[in-house]
Amino acid sequence: MRQSILIIGEDLEINREFLNYIFQSYEDHFGELGVVSFAPKNSKELPFIIENLSKDYDFVSIFGSDENFAIAAKIVATLTGGSLELKDSTTLALKDSLDYSKNSFLASLNNAQINLIKANPNEELGEFLTEYEPDFSYFHLIDIDADSAKILMLPLAKTYEVDITLAQILPNLILVRAKSNKFGQIESFLQGVKTLFSQKFIPQKDVIKFVAKKLMQKGLKISFAESCTAGLVAAKFARYGGISASFDGSLVTYANHIKHEWLGVEDEILDTYGAVSEPCVKAMIKGTLSTTNADFALAISGIAGPGGGTASKPVGTVYVAAGDRNGNIEVERLLLKGERNYIREQSVLSAYLCLLRLKSEIFFA
Hints:
Layout: E1 3-8, H1 10-13, H2 16-30, E2 35-39, H3 46-56, E3 59-64, H4 66-80, E4 84-87, E5 91-94, E6 99-101, E7 104-109, E8 112-118, E9 136-142, H5 146-159, E10 162-170, E11 173-180, H6 186-197, E12 201-202, H7 207-218, E13 222-226, H8 232-237, E14 251-252, H9 256-263, H10 267-272, H11 278-291, E15 296-302, E16 317-324, E17 329-335, H12 340-358, H13 360-363
Parallel strand pairs: 1-2, 1-3, 3-8, 13-14, 13-15
Antiparallel strand pairs: 4-5, 6-7, 7-8, 9-11, 9-12, 10-11, 15-16, 16-17
Helix pairs in contact: 3-4, 5-6
Protein name: CinA family protein
Organism: Campylobacter concisus
InterPro entries: CinA-like_C (IPR036653), CinA_C (IPR008136)
């Protein structure tokens, strides 16, 4: 099924934080982001843009703040030959809408479902009303490269009439999109992949959500000690509802003296090996577990750049670690490339992969 997003108005186009809210809400509903386009509110081309989208896509979601919502509603009414009315005294919608709720209505145009949703910054989005059955699924594979994974999956994909697209997220992490053909059997394909890859298979698009759900289901807690990521590991973990069941708190220990004072990292370790080292992240793990009541801890220390690198530890050198209360610790040295925030993002994912390896029996049982 083909999906499209139309954002009307420069006020939304330049509002990155609110756009992220729109896009995340859209992805939660549809499973992935559709093709995005933007249009100014006063564009004379807007009726043609909406009509052409309805011809090219099966689902079109249109977002606009108050005035632009009303403009788009009038255009949809004109294109469908319908009329507008106020529903429940607040929502302007087609009189013969397929469906409506507060700040949202659904119409049919050229065999496409058109969902017009009011999007006012600092307010909750209108409801998505599209009835949608996805013909695709996402999953991750860990500790295998894309070429090897593709070779192993192609026979299964052919058997079950599924097309696969692979993205190398990390050297040891692959995201796979599986899309069913007309007579494809995507569930059978996914079961075959799970059997083939066993403890390498993560049946979700979001690795961190997978980890969080497993910990919450099993009543286990985790905490973090972060240096170069400065709280990003914790922030990403806290995105999900109910996370307080597995998360009490965390520590950002950017400076060496804070690593020493808060986590008990010995000065000898910092002086001899440096903060960006395996001994340091191991000590950070131990300090976190002794400071908190967590069952597990993740630690990160590295050089995200753009400066600070040396010949022996260039920019992108990051150590990530996972540990448990039994003294087991998994450490990985990363040599990442890219700008500062990309390195930080990759470091976060890598730390969670360490946890999956450390306790595979919990996550892949």
